[in-house]
Design brief:
The protein has 257 residues and is mostly helical. It has 14 helices and no strands.
Length: 257
């Protein structure tokens, strides 16, 4: 009964609560989807202290249910382990987990997992100091795989990560192109956090070009999206960047606000 009532609510954290209620009611199989959604919400919010135990519990439930290793949920395990490692700064483990996901995705023909794994491999590789050409190739392969899946969220994530890498290389105009494409994808998907991240990326490009007013406009829009998605990490990044822009302009009073 509690789980049915909670399904009528939509705020962040509800999926996790639904999953726990279903588990307590002995409905482990029905709990898998809401628990997975809750895990993703924690990951997107950067709540890694909570994410780790949740992911371990979810994996234990997969084993308890004797879920076939051909099920894409096992690919989700590798992807989430990779993202957890990346979020805690362990890029070597992040790359390794993503490579396991890619290995299994090729074998099982999991297109979504294949795209996610390639994007994570490229991201972890360049953050971990591996070869930049290999990193870009993996990122572009991830985008190509995402194009085969009819999901603008997946494509937006792949394109945003390419844009982030291009910023790292100092290729700002190319990065702006990818951030704009990601924004289009996330807008189609009505993904508030994704739209916020895309505007934040465009703000980074504008700041680098010293187009400070354009940068602030993107940051203001990004802030609205992050507030709507309850992303405290996103809000903190945006406010910090706005302060940096004011300092670059010599406006130290506003930079401290």
């Amino acid at each position: 009964t509690c789980a049915i009532m909670l399904k009528k609510q939509v705020r962040r954290g509800i999926n996790e609560r639904i999953g726990h209620h279903l588990l307590l009611a002995g409905q482990g199989k029905q709990a898998l989807i809401p628990l997975l959604q809750g895990i993703w919400e924690r990951e997107e919010a950067g709540e890694y202290q909570v994410l780790g135990p949740m992911l371990k519990a979810w994996e234990r439930e997969l084993h308890r249910l004797n879920l076939s290793f051909g099920h894409p949920y096992w690919g989700e395990v590798w992807i989430l382990k990779s993202r957890f490692a990346r979020g805690t700064g362990d890029y070597q483990t992040s790359f390794q987990m993503a490579s396991y996901a890619h290995r299994d995705a090729k074998k099982q023909k999991w297109l979504r997992i294949s795209s996610q794994s390639l994007t994570l491999m490229g991201d972890a590789a360049f953050r971990g100091g591996m070869d930049e050409e290999d990193s870009l190739n993996w990122l572009l392969e991830g985008e190509q795989e995402a194009e085969k899946v009819a999901d603008p969220n997946l494509l937006g994530g792949a394109r945003w990560t390419v844009g982030d890498f291009l910023c790292y290389q100092g290729k700002w105009s190319q990065a702006a192109h990818y951030f704009q494409k990601a924004l289009d994808d996330y807008t189609e998907a009505r993904n508030q956090l994704g739209m916020g991240n895309a505007h934040y990326g465009l703000a980074r490009v504008a700041r680098q070009a010293e187009l400070f007013e354009d940068a602030r406009q993107h940051l203001d829009i990004a802030l609205v999206h992050c507030e709507m998605s309850s992303s405290q990490r996103g809000i903190a990044d945006i406010l910090s960047t706005k302060g940096d822009i004011y300092r670059m302009e010599g406006n130290l009073d506003l930079a401290e606000d």
